[in-house]
Design brief:
Length: 127
Amino acid sequence: MQGFIVILLYLSAAAAAAYAARGETRRPGWREPALFLAAAAVAAHAAWLVATIVTRGGFTLAVADSASLLGWMLAAAGLLALFAPGYRVVSAAAFGLAALLAAGTGSLPQPRLSAGHGWPLAAHALL
């Protein structure tokens, strides 16, 4: 259920960003409805990733989960791009791609390898 909400929020944010991009009146980014939808999607996606990726033994390293993490970072960049009116189309594309990548979270039935917690793995994931 959490995945459905994340994907729905991303698609709604993408539609709102596309609508804002084609509008004649340029509102500031903090007044765009797409900003609030995208912020909710990014927060819900982060919570879903933490629940899926972080385990007692460390991090799970499945390909679909890594792609979902990449989608989360794209959505965070799209969230920042909403503040520049000329880049709202880029935001819409980033949110659509994030929805596609989020759909794969936890979907691979293969056994997952777990890596221990530590700063090198955290730095690698953030970079």
